[in-house]
Amino acid sequence: MNKKHLLLLVVILGIFSCKKSDRDEDKTTNTSADVAFATNVTYDVFKTIYQAANSTQGIVTAAYVDSISVFGCDTITKDTTSNPKWMQIKFNTDCTSSSIIRNGKLYVTFNGHFNTPGTTANLAIYDFSYNGYRVYDGSITYKYEGLTDSFPTYSVTFTNLKIINSFSQKIVYSGSHKLQIIQGQNTQTITDDLYSISGVNSGRVFKGNGFTSQITTNLNLSGNCNWIESGVVTVKPDNNPTRTLDFGSGCDNKISVKVYDINHELELP
Predict the structure, then answer these.
(1) pLDDT in tens, 122-135
(2) Which residue of 26, 146, 240, 268 is most buried, as measured by CB atoms within 10 A?
(3) Rounded distance, CA 10 to CA 2, Å?
(4) 3-state DSSP call for residue 10?
């Protein structure tokens, strides 16, 4: 092989190796851990909005109270006479509650009262951050479907929700879920609530891997817990076998991921 051909081969191999290095091959747990983390973040957002809506006169048909704050370090503003209605939660700098630090604001529009069947709430995110992870683009839609088996039921749609870490890596999170409130729906606060969640997701994780996932055992989340407490998700990274993500059975940040019949114990950030 002459020197010109050898040089050309080296350049081509270099280009392809750079392209491959843009993706973590994810032979272990990275994709599953990122899916678990993104799901936790998105349901922290739901709980915040749900508490604010049910504490704001005019956003629901009969609020338990008419509050101006969720955590005491944020401000709720609203316009219930416009069409659509809107509600904004603006967090003070480093608003901290139950060890979670929130910044930015959440802006939600409603085409009716949030507790009236058929009402859709559309969330726009303005540089909201959760413990330093910025959620800066995409949307979440909540539709109240009414009672199913006597439980309040919401359809939740995630569209290209983006979460960025300190290394400028991004999670892109899309999907469709059903959420039921199976405990605590008749009280003023969310602290005694229990949510049951099913559905599917797809997107891309911090290392760049594409994925699809499906909740195979409903996720359970308490209103007074920062973490999903139980449930099982199958996670399929692109070009890799399916993993099993298990949230365990308690209020903590621990998960397990089974890959090739080996269980990996992990802690979420």
Answers:
(1) 998 878 999 999 99
(2) 26
(3) 13
(4) helix
